[in-house]
Write a structure and sequence with these properties.
The chain is of the alpha/beta class. The protein is built from 29 helices and 19 strands. Strand 10, helix 12 and strand 11 form a beta-alpha-beta unit. Helix 11 packs across helix 25.
């Protein structure tokens, strides 16, 4: 028998224990061990089999090391069928997580018991596929169509209490999984309980699956896996079990061959690789227990909230007592959401807001913090003034961090006597919700300061990406370019509303003009004014219609009007009728005759601009690897996860054709459409961005 599955016979109960740390993934050795263990239990004359996991979990899911490899027998569907078809009573005792194939093994068992902290789920849609080992056939027979559609199409994890109420679990008990499993198996034997294969249960009643498919597809914003899973559930209602299993496998294999599956697998692995930097190997981060936050606006309050929730104490510094109290109110509002959702108890809420949080208007209050993050107005002189004061009051070894979105961290660090302690920590608003953190490494930043930035991100449960210093770092530099591309298309004849729709149809969570309204139009206005003051290249096409909105005090959602008009309390808006006349006026002044754009051309130009600038960012070393760009755009800019990120998308659509388009458009505007040298190099060598990711991993 495989060493990945332990075997012992305790009286008339055979015990199969998963021994494949760290998460008992269902690799080949585990699958073979389960098949062999079932055969041995039957040969030994056992009356029941207990399956459980040693260590921290039951089977947490598939073995990610096998992703992309040819399938090897025994395949998981056959393992589940082998378990279910045994003449013995089979009990699974769950702890930790039983996800994907793990839950499918449990559903192949006849009875399921779990500890209260266990979680179950079928999250396959989150990597672009669907249950492929009977999950879409057994779960509906057990808990019905509605609950199965919810669990399978969302990919969410279900706690033990809910799983018991739904009927996924038969019992929930405190204790060691082995002990409660053995006791339950003993009880079943002694009571004369019969086998209970889910495959032999009555199929659930069919619903209007065509309508359900449409609802799920619309909700998924173009992701095909959830809606395809609906067809698998439909098979459980309309086909005999064996034929349903064939249909599930057919749908599963269709998804395995899709571009979306490629994109989501790329995203899955990239988010795990992004924080693994050779430069940090063996580097110990600095101590981190208390942080300071300067500026209690939306961003600063969000950063403070994230820090408090991660167990850090926070000193919030504001210019006046009134501003400090307003900041506290924002933090309490953020934490109140967690309290309302049951993520915090009332006692925890009070501890965080009265004990862990300190308000101050004096820089001396920051003298003992381990790290301070400024979140003040995006102006270099203001930032320098803050850092000069921090340099004077902060203890030796304290990390001095700027939350700047665009400004030069080297210039900020140069105004201190400790540039090695200075780093950029660019959070995304709202900072207690958004998952991305850009860790911006300046020329003099010490390695242990970089490690501390990544440690902070991990404590806050962020996806942290290393970025170099340039205007906008990784994300905002690329954003500036593709947003400029959108502005060019508007001058030439498109509308903000056509562009937003084309890009949400492509899969973005929001279009660029709706995003600008959400972030605040004053941010882009400030950047445009700064760049104009620094001097634009005479070849650059500039547009000013958006400046008129800002000059009139219209900054988007926070003022109720921008590209869209927002009713009080509503996040979605309707087009602002003042915008198109502003655009028409600017076209007239510039002598531009508007032309029509197809949605396809809008997407192609927008994406080509994004990819071309991203290639420059990688080529210049601002991002170390293409996957760093992909993760940044996925987690900070609403890029559709099922497309993997802009550079994965570029690989899939083909780099030669993209480069050819860029060169064609360069005939009209050779300043904006300058091909990235790295893109030209990859095309010339017949290579892809993913080849660079693989080289970096070696």
């Amino acid at each position: 028998m495989s060493e990945a599955i332990g075997y012992e016979l305790i009286g008339d109960i055979a015990v199969l224990s998963a021994q494949n740390p760290p998460v008992n993934a269902l690799g080949l050795d585990v699958r073979q061990g389960l098949v062999d263990g079932m055969a041995r239990a039957e040969a030994d004359g056992a009356k029941a089999v207990l399956i459980y996991g040693e260590g921290r979990t039951y089977f947490a899911g598939a073995d990610i090391r096998e992703f992309g490899r040819p399938p090897t027998e025994p395949l998981l569907p056959n393992v589940c069928t082998r378990i279910e078809s045994s003449p013995l009573i089979v009990v699974s005792a769950l702890h930790g997580t039983a996800l994907g194939g793990g839950l499918e093994i449990a559903l192949g068992s006849h009875y399921r018991i779990a500890v209260p902290s266990a979680r179950v789920g079928l999250p396959e849609v989150l990597i672009g596929v669907m249950p492929g080992a009977g999950g879409s056939q057994r779960l509906p027979r057990l808990i019905g169509v509605d609950a199965s559609v919810d669990i399978i199409t969302s990919g969410r994890q279900v706690g033990a209490k809910e799983a018991l109420e739904l009927g996924i679990l038969d019992r929930v008990e405190d204790g060691a999984p082995r002990d409660i499993g053995l006791a339950y198996a003993r009880e079943l034997i002694d009571s004369g309980a019969e086998r209970r294969p889910i495959s032999e249960m009555r199929a659930p009643k069919a619903v209007d699956f065509d309508a359900l498919y449409d609802v799920v597809f619309k909700k998924s914003r173009g992701m095909i896996a959830p809606a395809t899973a609906v067809r698998g559930i439909q098979a459980s209602c309309e086909l005999p079990f064996v034929q349903g299993m064939y249909r599930e496998r057919e749908l599963f294999m269709e998804l395995m061959a899709s571009d979306q599956r490629q994109g989501m697998i790329h995203a899955f692995f990239s988010e795990r690789a992004v924080g693994k930097l050779p430069e940090l190997k063996g580097i110990k981060p600095r101590d981190l227990n208390a942080i300071g936050v300067i500026g209690g606006g939306t961003m600063g309050a969000g950063i403070a909230t994230a820090a408090l929730l991660s167990g850090l104490s926070v000193v919030m510094l504001e210019m006046s007592a009134e501003a400090a109290e307003a900041a506290k109110g924002r933090i309490e509002g953020n934490l109140g959401g967690a309290l309302k959702r049951g993520k915090l108890s009332q006692a925890q809420f009070e501890d965080l807001t009265t004990k862990a949080l300190t308000l101050s208007t004096n820089y001396e209050a920051l003298s003992d913090v381990d790290l301070v993050i400024e979140a003040v107005f995006e102006d270099m002189e203001v930032k320098k003034k803050v850092f000069t004061q921090l340099d004077a009051v902060c203890k030796p070894g304290a990390v001095l961090a700027s939350n700047t979105s665009y400004l030069d961290i080297n210039e900020i660090a140069a105004c201190t006597n400790r540039p090695e302690d200075v780093i950029g920590l660019h959070f995304f608003s709202p900072a207690h919700v958004m998952k991305l953190l850009e860790v911006v490494v300046a020329d003099a930043t010490a390695p242990d300061v970089v490690a501390t930035g990544f440690m902070l991100g991990a404590r806050m449960r962020k996806i942290s990406v290393r970025a170099g210093v340039c205007d906008g770092f990784i994300g905002n530099r690329i954003l500036s370019t593709y947003r400029t591309c959108a502005d060019h298309m508007i001058l030439d004849g498109a509308s903000p509303y056509q562009i937003d729709k084309a890009l949400t149809d492509f899969g973005f969570a929001m279009g660029p003009f709706a995003v600008a309204d959400l972030a605040g139009l004053d941010i882009g206005w400030s950047v445009r004014k700064r760049k104009r003051a620094e001097g634009l290249d005479p070849r650059a096409r500039d547009s000013s219609y958006a400046d008129k909105l800002c000059e009139d005090g219209h900054f988007g959602q926070k003022t109720g009007k921008g590209y869209y008009i927002y009713d009080a309390g509503k996040r979605a808006g309707v087009p602002n009728p003042d915008v198109m006349p502003m655009i028409a006026s600017e076209r007239l002044v510039k002598g531009i005759t508007a032309r029509e754009f197809t949605d396809e051309e809008i997407v192609r130009r927008y994406m080509a601009a994004m990819v071309n600038e991203a290639a420059k960012v990688v080529g210049e070393g601002i991002a170390r690897r293409p996957l760093d760009v992909d993760v940044t755009l996925l987690y900070g800019y609403g890029f559709p996860r099922y497309r993997g990120g802009p550079l994965k998308w570029a690989d899939m659509v083909g780099l030669p054709a993209l480069l050819a388009d860029i060169k064609t458009w360069a005939e009209e505007d050779d300043y904006f459409w300058q091909p990235a040298p790295l893109l030209e190099q990859l095309v010339a060598e017949g290579r892809t961005f993913d080849d660079l990711n693989k080289e970096a991993a070696q």
